[in-house]
């Protein structure tokens, strides 16, 4: 085989290739597995012939690589010259997610109380019985302590049934006056229905200062109701009983579906319960070392899930937990 003639022919084919396709075809013809050069290399029997053939192969490979680079540069130059991009056109819009409705409500409530001068406090969801019940003046035989109502991790540890233990932890670490809210997830053995779920969210508020009365509590809750629901929603505070407040009350908002006439969502009462509230019991102050003769306070716990339900006319609390995008995308 005439190696020099073959190389000249290959170099000519490289120079004549004006596209990447033509160059690849020439590479296969002169450097492919079935090319004359590769066949000759397989049949080499002496050192001198091998060196000659390998030198020719290396020169051709370098020629092909150089021509490939030239073609790439030429294509880039052509694209830059002929292809135009209108940078003023809007780009492709990508769908973006957003915060869950309950997270939106939680942040709005936080902002409302921060504006009133309260501090936000996060307590643990897995709580000691002493904080969840004992420090909140809940007696041993109270129904809320029963495993029928509460998730027990062990004899001394529960999944918190309310955010009220945050009050105790905060007061243990701070001297009065105190203005704090604690928001988070709570757990109870409730049967799911339109207004109850085993897992729910609560906002707990506590104010401790001199000469605080039940009127201060009512004014705070009415202010929150106006911020969240507007002036058209009716509210009421009715007497009740909780171990950790005395006097105690419950805070209700008029049903959004029936406007107070009665329906299955409000259990035909015309009202939907938001949560409990009241003046802090002196026994709670005694547990954290506050002097109930010098300090008074109010506390409240409201359901964030129910606040979202009322705010947006959601007929069933369980929708918050079903991860149905048709529902979630509405907010």
CATH topology of the largest domain: BirA Bifunctional Protein, domain 2
- Gross morphology: elongated
- Total helical segments: 11
Highest-level CATH class of the largest domain: Alpha Beta
Flag low-confidence runs.
none
Structural class: alpha+beta
CATH superfamily of the largest domain: Bira Bifunctional Protein, Domain 2
Number of strands: 10
Please estimate the helix content: 40-55%
CATH architecture of the largest domain: 2-Layer Sandwich
Mean pLDDT: 88
Radius of gyration: 38 Å
Number of separate structural domains: 2
Task: Describe this structure as you would to a colleague.
The protein has 331 residues and is α+β, with helices and mostly antiparallel strands. It has two domains: 3-82, no CATH class; 101-328, Bira Bifunctional Protein, Domain 2 (BirA Bifunctional Protein, domain 2). The chain has eleven helices and ten strands. It has helices at residues 3-16, 20-31, 36-42, 47-82, 101-115, 129-132, 165-173, 214-229, 282-288, 304-312, 325-328, and strands at 119-120, 126-128, 152-154, 157-159, 178-187, 199-209, 235-242, 245-254, 271-280, 296-303. A hairpin with a 2-residue loop joins strand 3 and strand 4.
């Amino acid at each position: 085989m005439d190696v020099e003639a073959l190389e000249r022919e290959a170099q000519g084919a490289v120079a004549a290739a004006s596209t990447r396709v033509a160059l690849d075809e020439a590479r296969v013809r002169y450097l492919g597995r079935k090319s004359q050069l590769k066949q000759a290399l397989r049949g080499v029997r002496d050192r001198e012939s091998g060196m000659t053939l390998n030198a020719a192969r290396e020169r051709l490979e370098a020629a092909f690589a150089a021509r490939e680079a030239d073609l790439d540069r030429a294509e880039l130059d052509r694209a830059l010259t002929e292809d135009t991009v209108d940078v003023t056109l809007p780009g492709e819009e990508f769908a973006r997610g957003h915060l869950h409705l309950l997270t939106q409500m939680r942040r709005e409530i936080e902002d409302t109380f921060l504006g009133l001068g309260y501090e936000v406090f996060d307590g643990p969801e897995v709580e000691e019985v002493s904080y969840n019940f004992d420090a909140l003046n809940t007696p041993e035989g109270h129904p809320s302590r029963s495993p029928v109502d509460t998730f027990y991790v062990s004899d001394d540890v529960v999944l918190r049934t309310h955010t009220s233990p945050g009050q105790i932890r905060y007061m243990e670490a701070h001297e009065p006056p105190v203005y704090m809210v604690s928001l988070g997830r709570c757990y109870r053995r409730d049967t799911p229905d339109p207004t109850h779920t085993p897992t729910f969210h609560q906002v707990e508020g506590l104010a401790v200062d001199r000469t605080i009365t039940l009127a201060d509590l009512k004014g705070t809750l009415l202010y929150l109701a106006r911020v969240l629901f507007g002036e058209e929603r009716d509210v009421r505070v009715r007497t009740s009983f909780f171990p950790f407040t005395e006097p105690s009350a419950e805070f209700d908002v008029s049903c959004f579906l029936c406007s107070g006439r009665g329906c299955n969502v409000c259990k035909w009462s015309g009202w939907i319960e938001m949560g409990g509230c009241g003046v802090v019991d002196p026994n709670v102050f005694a547990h954290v070392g506050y002097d109930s003769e010098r300090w008074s306070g109010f506390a409240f716990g409201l359901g964030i899930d129910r606040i979202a339900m009322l705010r947006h006319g959601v007929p069933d609390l369980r929708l918050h937990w079903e991860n149905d995008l048709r529902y979630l995308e509405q907010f």
